[in-house]
Amino acid sequence: MRVVLVVAVTVAALLAPPASRLFAAGAAGPPGIVAEAVAGAVDGAVGGAAAGVRPAADGEAVPVVGRTWPVGVRPRVLRGWEPPAAVYGPGHRGVDLAATPGTPVRAVADGRVSFAGRVAGKGVVSVELTGTGDPPLRTTYEPVRATVPQGAEVSAGEVIGTVEAGGSHCTAPCVHWGLLRGDTYLDPLSLLPPWLLHRGPSRLLPVLGVPLP
Hints:
Blueprint lengths: L1 H14 L3 H6 L6 H16 L30 E3 L15 E4 L5 E3 L4 E9 L2 E8 L7 E6 L1 E3 L6 E2 L4 E5 L10 E8 L2 E3 L7 H4 L16
Antiparallel strand pairs: 1-2, 2-10, 3-9, 4-5, 4-8, 5-6, 6-10, 7-9, 10-11
């Protein structure tokens, strides 16, 4: 089985066109976005092989600047971040969050919309996060129909689009949420503080001097 997977990954890598050829074919968007879209397509075709984007560096720090989830209050994580061991290795370069079509998609932190449009048939929105270094961290969301233009300044929690009905690589409706610094993929959940990641259900506590109903 491993031999078959290695052969499939190798063939996919050799046949995959470079980003420049994708642009020539009409796939508009920055190279990082194109690489991410190609990675998603190859993931589905050969069970997790990705386009040529660097795996995350060990111990690379991510500032906790997130103030909200991209969708909902505490969405179900259908598939977590699985960093590949090598550029073309198997893995999952982002997090899949359960979300029905039409669900509002929000910026997780303050930033600037660096891309809003379609790549390889999918709606993609990318936001460069303010104050996160050079190059800045960049969050990506797909499949999303953008409601903000490229270049717009957005605040944490601001709606940047809605979940599209088609284009998802999940078995159930979802949003693929990615995080990059330059051409390196990172775990987007690392943007969120513990109180957002692990918040349990609200409970009403008794108040001294106030009778129970």
